[in-house]
Specification:
Strand content: under 5%
Largest sheet: none
Number of domains: 1
Shape: elongated
Radius of gyration: 22 Å
Helix content: 55-70%
Length: about 90
Amino acid sequence: MMNRATKTLQARLDPKSKQAVIQAAKLRHVGLSDYIRLVLVPTAKKEVEQAKNQVLQMTADEQERFWLALQAPVKLTKAQRKLGKIMRGDA
């Protein structure tokens, strides 16, 4: 199914990640290259479209982690505390 317009893509993966991709391809009963095309290309296109529309889409787990991060108390650096004093006129 390769035509003249196709290009090769190489990626380095740690052994566990590579095994996970191989296993996922087997679960779909497709070869590794086909799996990458089936999963990576649509995902990349979706992310590009979201970026164009300035939309951020997150899974429920990602939404929860984001919300928790927003709720965490702020830990200011020494430089930020100093700037705050200067801005308040306390310096």
